[in-house]
Amino acid sequence: MINRVKVLYKRGGILAAILMSCMVFTTQPVCAGEAEQTGEIHLKYTPVQEAQFWVYRVGDITDSWEFELTGEFKEFQMDLNALDTESMAAAAQTLASYVKADRIEADHSGRTDMNGDLYFSGLAKGVYLIDGESIIHEGVRYDPVPVLVTVPSMNEAGEWVYETEVETKYETFIPTGEKKEYRIVKYWSNDGDGSVRPKDITVEILKDGERHSVQTLSEENDWSYVWKTEDDGSVWQVVERNIPEGYTVMVEKNQTAFMISNTYREEGKEPPKTGDGTALLYTAILLFLSGLILIIAGLTIWRRKRDAKQVHKR
């Protein structure tokens, strides 16, 4: 999951100190001396040993901590800044499917050791996709869940660190050998009466990373497609091709169902961002001044009480 700054505000001197830290983090998340610093991802995966994993640098991190897809991932219509925790997981799944379909080469790869540990070092600042291979072990298929992480990341103490730890989640399936039904359903979002929608879309179905078939979804088939196949332990994925102009794409998988969502972005309106640097700077300054006023007020009251006690003693 991509980490986000969480700031807890308290009273008095603690308030001012935290607000000053907030101003540093939001306006200068990585200082000039750290610009060329590289990081490391420590991956933990315990279900099976010697599992293969791949790491892809999918995005840049700007000075104002906005995320921008980069390289071969630029062409995918997706805005990482408009995602919550749940949709971020779907974004990772979507990008992992495109990686397989387009045979995008990984920036780093490796296998876990006997303890389930795997380290990737020399990573430049950015957003990374981590994906692993599905393995059938003792009749059970283990599927690592793709994940997006950042380098650097924020630890539990609220500090930016260049060592990111990832405990990879996974799903398990037991192949039955029987016929199983799979379904693709198309959803449209934020496009009003649908007048800007295309008349159809193209979906590519992948079986174990290889193209299985290409299907067309439209109103005629209720924007859906169903197929049946033997449950032999194969991994199925889908990607949308020729994404309609003005739309973003997201693919979510739930057991045997694939939900493709296209969300329309109104022309001239930018989606929500993680934060504007200038606005955050002004906000931080105002909050800092507010904290400073609280400190001064507290000290004034304390001094008056002290002076009053001294006068009383006299």
TrEMBL record:
Pfam families, sorted: Cna_B, GramPos_pilinD1
TM spans (from-to): 279-302
UniProt keyword annotation of tRNA-binding present: no
Signal peptide (residue range): 1-32
Top-level lineage group: Bacteria
Keyword terms: Membrane, Signal, Transmembrane, Transmembrane helix
Domain CNA-B per the UniProt entry, residue ranges: 184-263
Domain Gram-positive pilin subunit D1 N-terminal: 35-164
Keyword Isomerase included in the entry's annotation: no
Annotated NCBIfam families: LPXTG_anchor (TIGR01167)
The protein's name: CNA-B domain-containing protein
